[in-house]
Amino acid sequence: xxxxxxxxxxxxxxxxxxxxxxxxxxxxxxxxxxxxxxxxxxxxxxxxxxxxxxxxxxxxxxxxxxxxxxxxxxxxxxxxxxxxxxxxxxxxxxxxxxxxxxxxxxxxxxxxxxxxxxxxxxxxxxxxxxxxxxxxxxxxxxxxxxxxxxxxxxxxxxxxxxxxxxxxxxxxxxxxxxxxxxxxxxxxxxxxxxxxxxxxxxxxxxxxxxxxxxxxxxxxxxxxxxxxxxxxxxxxxxxxxxxxxxxxxxxxxxxxxxxxxxxxxxxxxxxxxxxxxxxxxxxxxxxxxxxxxxxxxxxxxxxxxxxxxxxx
Length: 312
Hints:
By secondary structure, this protein is α/β, with parallel strands linked by helices. The protein has one domain (2-311): Ribokinase (UDP-N-acetylmuramoyl-L-alanine:D-glutamate ligase, 3-Layer(aba) Sandwich), CATH 3.40.1190. 37% of the residues lie in helices and 26% in strands. It is built from 10 helices and 14 strands. The protein has helices spanning 38-48, 64-73, 112-126, 146-157, 169-175, 187-194, 201-215, 253-266, 271-286, 296-303; strands at residues 2-6, 10-17, 30-36, 53-61, 76-85, 87-94, 99-103, 131-135, 162-166, 182-183, 219-223, 229-233, 236-240, 309-311. Strands 5-4-1-8-9-10-11-12-13-14 form a 10-stranded mixed sheet, with helices on both faces. Strands 3-2-6-7 form a 4-stranded mixed sheet. Helix 3 (112-126) packs parallel to helix 4 (146-157) and helix 9 crosses helix 10 (296-303). It is globular and about 55 Å long. The chain starts with a strand and ends with a strand.
């Protein structure tokens, strides 16, 4: 079983247009609204790939579309009631350059009583879970060490559970102290976490090795957008080029990558294959509109394609 946690759920409204021009009125070609939040996205991506998961999330006012989406996908859900209204995030996809402008609302603050309920839900789910995915931004009131706290709590009831951490800023840095099995930052998140500017792939690999050596992190996969991704663990290091697909939206690609990695880990595959699974799941999401995820059949097709993987 894979459990995901979302402390920052949302509705993601994606607007696509031919070219974004700030000096004129822009006409949308299409728009859609999807249930969002990084952990929820991972659960929906896993469902699209044929794998059931359990999604724990903060249920705010207006969260009904999230429950509907999870139920329709066949994912289990654990809704932890929380005050405040569900945020709406606006994503503007510019087809001319394949880039997405994101305007995210702030999360409602959470209190200690709610956090205690979240911790209890994570502990309960950890008992029969192989993987716990802790991902997304941290709402005010939660504390930057919340992922560290939840990871340690989950390991107390299931020492064999594998923690995947996909966050940013201080929440990511504090979470490293819980020795997660895998972290999946992008380049900017990795740079911010360690306070450095990466000038090359070799420097990124060195920094990942430092995370493994100093914090006890088992594996690091860094998504590099159009440049692909790298994976580092122990004495291993690999690079993967991004697959050539026709992009329609980059929204949710990182969460799809986490879902692909979860599948590989669940199957007991190598780090190199974990990177391959992650790259293919991300590519399958990029070629779809909005926050949508590729089907199991398309994923299998991508896995059979010419994926350029190299040793570092």
